[in-house]
């Protein structure tokens, strides 16, 4: 491939990249939006459920359950903030933190639902069901969004190298990205 063809290919790739402005994931953003409105009634119902079942718990499960609830509430608020920040502003670090906290949140909620020693109330079972759905969808869409965002950031990085005077000898590396 001669130099003129490489420059033409580079210009076409730059035009294709500049057309794609937003990489944020719509389904992830929708589930985050609905999850924010759902999280406050979810937290309130878990606190009511803890108050109702606290006297029936074994002594060591009282401490464990309270600790899990405190971690759940803290992680939920931080997770939703990082999800919004990472998805809308296309920040890879925040989105990766959101994804990891979502996995942690899923494990903690499954612990509360599956463990028979935590005395599962029907109220808790009912409110944790939709949250588990949100978490599963957010894990899948968050991972896909993270992959697309990393790919877009790599392409932006390579383009910035080309704009700042780097040679066109590595233009073939741009071919590995799906730009169309």
Give start-end ranges of low-pLDDT stretches.
Answer: none
Q: Assess the beta-strand content as a share of residues.
A: under 5%
Question: What's the overall average pLDDT, rounded?
Answer: 85
Give the overall shape, derived from the CA principal axes.
elongated
Percent of residues in helical segments?
over 70%
The number of helical elements comes to: 5
N-to-C series of helices and strands: HHHHH
Task: Characterize the main sheet.
Answer: none
- Based on CA atoms alone, the radius of gyration comes out at 23 Å
Distance between the termini: 21 Å
Structure description:
The structure is a single chain. The chain has 180 residues and is mostly helical. It has a domain at 27-143. Helices cover 78% and strands 0% of the residues. It has five helices and no strands. It has helices at residues 3-19, 26-53, 59-88, 92-114, 122-163. Helix 2 (26-53) packs antiparallel against helix 5, helix 3 (59-88) packs antiparallel against helix 4 (92-114) and helix 4 (92-114) packs antiparallel against helix 5. The longest helix has 42 residues, at 122-163. It is elongated. The two termini are 21 Å apart. The model has no long low-confidence stretch (mean pLDDT 85).
């Amino acid at each position: 491939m001669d130099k003129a063809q490489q420059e033409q290919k580079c210009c076409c790739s730059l035009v294709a990249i500049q057309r794609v402005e937003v990489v944020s994931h719509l389904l992830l953003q929708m589930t985050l939006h609905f999850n924010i409105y759902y999280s406050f009634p979810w937290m309130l119902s878990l606190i009511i459920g803890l108050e109702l079942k606290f006297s029936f718990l074994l002594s060591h499960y009282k401490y464990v359950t309270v600790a899990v609830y405190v971690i759940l509430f803290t992680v939920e608020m931080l997770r939703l903030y990082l999800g919004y920040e990472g998805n809308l502003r296309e920040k890879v670090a925040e989105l990766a933190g959101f994804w990891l906290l979502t996995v942690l949140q899923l494990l903690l909620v499954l612990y509360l639902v599956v463990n028979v020693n935590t005395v599962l109330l029907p109220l808790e079972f009912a409110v944790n069901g939709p949250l588990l759905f949100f978490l599963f969808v957010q894990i899948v869409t968050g991972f896909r969004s993270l992959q697309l965002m990393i790919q877009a950031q790599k392409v932006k990085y390579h383009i910035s190298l080309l704009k700042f005077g780097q040679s066109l000898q590595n233009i073939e590396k741009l071919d590995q990205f799906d730009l169309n």
